[in-house]
Write a structure and sequence with these properties.
This protein folds into 2 domains: about 170 residues, 3-Layer(aba) Sandwich (Rossmann fold); about 130 residues, Beta Barrel (OB fold (Dihydrolipoamide Acetyltransferase, E2P)), CATH 2.40.50.140. About 30% of the residues lie in helices and about 35% in strands. The protein contains 11 helices and 20 strands. Helix 1 packs across helix 6, helix 3 crosses helix 4 and helix 3 runs parallel beside helix 5.
Length: about 400
C-alpha cells in the first residue's frame, strides 16, 4: 500500500496542531462474566489518540472479548468503559465512534466492492455524491481503485481484507478495532499486509486496537502491547520493554525464545549488583529488584544475549578467557539449526539445563563454527540478564 509522504505529513501536522494525543479509550476495573465464568478480571488501561495498541495473548485469554466490549458487541459486568471521556457501557455499536474489522471480514457476498464499502454511509442516508467521493477515497487508500464492481468471491484474501478495512475507515471512526484480520493470509502476504496496515494507520492518524496471538505481528505494528493471560493483564509496555524487561516468566516465555537459568543469591556486592550461584557457576548479576541472601532466582537470557566459545579457544587465548570472567558456564553442543543469516546452537550445560544460543555468521566464513559434540563455554555481558524471583 504505497501512501505518499505528503499524506503522512499532513496527518502528523493535523494531529500536532489540534493536540490529538489525548486519551480516546479508557477502561476502569472492567470485568466481564459469562454465567459463572469470569472472562475479564479488573482490566484497566487507556489508549491515546493516534496510538497503535495490540492485545496479545493465547486463545481464550480474553482479548477478543475485550475488543467486543470496546466495539459495543458485549457489555461490562462491572467497571467502566469510556470513549472520548464519555461512558459508553450501554451505547450500541452503531452509535459509537468505533468500527471493527472482523477475522472473517464479514463482507456481503452478493454486494459489489463499492456497495460493501458504501453500506454504512447509505444506511446513514448520506447524499449519493458524498458516498461516491468517500468510497473512492477509501478504496484509493487501500489500493483497490478499479475494483468497485467486483464481488468478494472474485477477490483474493488480501483484497477482501482491504475491502473490510475500507468499509471500516470510510465512516471516519475515532477507533478502528481489528480482530486478527490477517490470520487467514499466507506468511508472505501477511508480512506485506502488516507493513501496509501500519502505513495506513500513520496516514489516517486514528487509533488502532489489534487483537493477535502473533508476537512478531504485535511487535512490528504496535506503539504499545498489552500481554494477557486468563482474563487479566500481565504487562503493558512498548515492544522493547516487553521483550527486554518482562515482568514475569509468563511474559518472557510468550514473547520470544528465552533461556531460564536457576540460581541462588550469595551476597550483595553493590546497590544493584549481586554474586550468585547460577547453574553451578559463580557469576555477577545486576538487578533493579531488591534480592535477599539465599533467595532462589531465575536468570533470563535471550538466545542472542549469550556469547559462545569453544573450550579449546578459551584455553589458547588469555584475552578471550578474561572476557568470560563475568560468567562462564560449561556445556556440550547437542544440535545446530540453520536459519539463513543466523543459526541456533542447542547446548547441554554441565548442570543438565538445556539452552539455546543464536549465532551469526562471520563476515569471512559461511561455515558453521560450532558442531554437535563440541565442548563450549557460555557467557554474557553483565546487565543483559533479567533477574526474577523464582516461580
Amino acid at each position: 500500500m504505497l501512501i505518499s509522504c505528503d499524506l503522512h505529513s499532513k496527518a502528523e501536522l493535523f494531529r500536532g496542531i489540534f493536540g490529538l494525543n489525548k486519551t480516546v479509550v479508557e477502561l476502569k476495573q472492567v470485568c466481564k462474566d459469562f454465567g459463572e465464568h469470569r472472562a475479564l478480571i479488573d482490566i484497566s488501561f487507556s489508549v491515546a489518540d493516534g496510538e497503535f495498541l495490540s492485545l496479545l495473548g493465547p486463545s481464550g485469554c480474553g482479548k477478543t472479548t475485550l475488543l467486543r466490549l470496546i466495539g459495543g458487541f458485549e457489555h461490562c459486568t462491572s467497571g467502566s468503559l469510556l470513549i472520548d471521556g464519555q461512558t459508553v457501557d450501554q451505547v450500541p455499536p452503531e452509535r459509537r465512534a468505533v468500527n471493527t474489522v472482523f477475522q472473517n471480514y464479514a463482507l456481503f457476498p452478493h454486494m459489489t466492492v463499492f456497495d460493501n464499502v458504501a453500506f454504512g454511509l447509505q444506511m446513514a442516508k448520506k447524499p449519493a455524491a458524498e458516498v461516491a467521493t468517500s468510497v473512492a477515497q477509501a478504496l484509493e487508500l487501500v489500493q483497490l481503485n478499479g475494483m468497485e464492481r467486483r464481488r468478494p468471491a472474485e477477490l483474493s484474501g488480501g483484497q477482501q481484507q482491504r475491502v473490510a478495512i475500507a468499509r471500516a475507515i470510510v465512516n471516519k471512526p475515532r477507533v478502528l478495532l481489528l480482530d486478527e484480520p490477517m490470520s487467514a493470509l499466507d506468511h508472505r502476504l501477511r508480512k506485506l499486509m502488516q507493513k501496509e496496515l501500519k502505513q495506513l494507520q500513520r496516514t489516517l492518524g486514528i487509533t488502532f486496537i489489534l487483537v493477535t496471538h502473533d508476537q512478531d505481528e504485535a511487535f512490528s505494528l504496535s506503539d504499545r502491547v498489552v500481554v494477557m493471560q486468563e482474563g487479566h493483564i500481565e504487562q503493558i509496555g512498548t515492544p522493547m520493554e516487553i521483550y527486554e524487561e518482562p515482568l514475569n516468566l509468563y511474559v518472557a516465555r510468550f514473547v520470544g525464545d528465552i533461556n531460564v537459568l536457576s540460581g541462588i543469591v550469595r551476597k550483595q556486592t553493590g546497590p544493584s549488583t549481586y554474586q550468585a550461584l547460577v547453574e553451578g557457576a559463580t557469576v555477577r548479576l545486576r538487578s533493579n529488584r531488591p534480592l535477599s541472601l539465599a533467595q532462589p532466582i531465575h536468570i533470563l537470557l535471550r538466545p542472542e544475549d549469550f556469547r559462545l566459545e569453544l573450550e579449546q579457544d578459551m584455553a589458547e587465548s588469555q584475552d578471550l578467557s578474561a572476557k568470560f570472567q563475568q560468567a562462564r558456564l560449561k556445556g556440550t553442543v547437542r544440535r545446530v539449526f540453520y536459519h539463513g543469516a543466523t543459526y541456533d546452537v542447542e547446548v547441554n550445560l554441565e548442570s543438565g539445563t538445556r539452552v539455546q544460543v543464536t549465532e551469526f555468521f562471520d563476515d569471512d566464513s559461511e561455515n558453521l563454527y560450532f558442531k554437535p559434540g563440541d565442548a563450549v563455554a557460555l557467557g554474557w555481558h553483565e546487565g543483559w540478564e533479567v533477574v526474577l524471583p523464582h516461580e
